[in-house]
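Lay summary. Proteins are chains of building blocks that fold into shapes, and those shapes determine what they do. In this project we predict the shape from the chain. Here is one chain we studied, written as its sequence of building blocks.
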Amino acid sequence: MRVGSVDGSRPALRVVLAEDSVLLREGLVGLLGRVGHEVVAAVGDADALLAAVAEHEPDVVVTDVRMPPGFQDEGLRAAVQLREARPGLPVLVLSQYVQRAYAAELLDSGDGTGVGYLLKDRVGQVEEFVDALGRVAGGGTVVDPEVVRQLLRRRRDPLERLTPREREVLALMAEGRSNGSIARRLVVSEAAVGKHIGGILAKLDLPPADETHRRVLAVLTYLRA
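And here is the predicted shape, written in a compact code that computers can read:
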């Protein structure tokens, strides 16, 4: 239950905070307290976050993406789990870097309202951070401008970066042709085909893997596009 107000217009919020860095966690506790909010629990891992939310039923959750034990996406997974169980629970996620897949999954969770994804740099801009927290708690959606740019870039045609020749090579790869067959079809050397394929794999931002696997991923990208 919200009690009182921060500045006469914004309600004071009961917050559960999850952040593994002790310094940042304590800093956020102090910051939120100074602006009139109450941090009812400040924890350092995802399991403790789930337990704290169950115990305190806060107005809003603030959590880091990466937390113990694996420092991968434990905080994000916990946030998504919480929103699946409580679709109306507002959650503001903080991340050191733009992680597009994590952002998209969070924004798709629950009913799509009361959710935010901010870079940690934004915390230093106190008024902006406090405003974002209030908007998320009020059912709004807040996404860091840099995250928006990254998500929009993700939705563009992944093949737009390829040259016309690289598109030709990729189309022939999709037909299951070998480098030699592609070379004969385009009347170029196999070395030239290999160079084009290298460019395709780099421009499609395919993860390091064995060559055969990367070729399959490239073909799948082509077919989806």
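What the prediction tells us: The two ends are 48 Å apart (CA to CA).
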